[in-house]
Amino acid sequence: MKKRTSILGGAAAIAATFVVFVIPFIFIILMAFKDRQQSALRDFSLPTGFHFWENVVEVVKTRNWMMITAFINSSIITVVSVTLLVIFAAMVGYVLARRKTRWNGLIEFLVLAGLMVPPAVVPTIWLLQGLQLFGTLHGMILIEVAYNLPFSIILYRAFVATIPRDLDEAAIIDGARPLDVFFRIVLPLLWPVTVTNIVVQSVGIFNDFTNPLYYLPGNANATVQLTLYNFQSQFSTAYNLLFTNILLITIPPLLVFMFFNRQIVAGMTAGAVKG
């Protein structure tokens, strides 16, 4: 009976995954291969001709090669933001796990509040304008770091708690300074959770739509998600170009998840397994 229930549950999960993820992706691919007239029907019919390459060229050339600029901007924001997230979150998680003070409860509460409390857009814009960072890439990087730091801290804190304190004490006895203990002893041991954090945060920041929409106006600062506006308007939409654009900006995160899927699962569960 249990075996039958397990098989039915697995089949239901596969069917749900196929409906939620595979069918929409197939629809995107079909639309990207159609011309504008056939794509306007928005159905699952096979394309009457091979128009994918024409659509790709048109998408890339639209609005003075905005897609190229968007990919560069998104790559810069993603790489710098993730680098800062790894460094800051690992250091904070290490301190929270190793040093027990009366402030730990308050700090952990603030970290959790960063996950639960929604961001205040208008005050954040005022702050960025006051710092002359509104509409700049480095301002956007600071926003991404601030919004994603709580999750990364929780991830690292849980993993650091599984590392024996004896390693720290042995390094200190050998004359290592606090920074040497962290960067030479502890940080290399955090590699599984670091890979998980890098992949998850990279995909999230690269696919971020709302934050660049609010804090990064201007065509020169466009990110890949905002290029979707190039092919839809109030009165008409070029669905073939829109779905070609969606396919192009979906491929990089999809490849990342395909190649690092096992590392993501291992890093997320490592703390629980070791604990």
Low-confidence stretches: none
Distance between the termini: 33 Å
Count the domains: 1
Share of β-strand residues: under 5%
Mean residue pLDDT: 86
Task: Let me know the CATH homologous superfamily.
Answer: MetI-like
Q: Can you tell me the CATH topology?
A: MetI-like fold
Series of H and E elements: HHHHHHHHHHH
CATH architectural grouping: Orthogonal Bundle
Secondary structure: helix percent = over 70%
Radius of gyration: 23 Å
Give the CATH level 1 class.
Mainly Alpha
- Tell me the major beta sheet: none
Structural class: mainly alpha
| Annotation field: number of helices | 11
Number of DSSP-assigned strands = 0
- Overall 3D geometry? globular
Can you walk through the features of this model?
It contains 11 helices and no strands. Helices cover 76% and strands 0% of the residues. 28% of the residues are buried. It is found in: Cell membrane. It comes from Devosia marina.
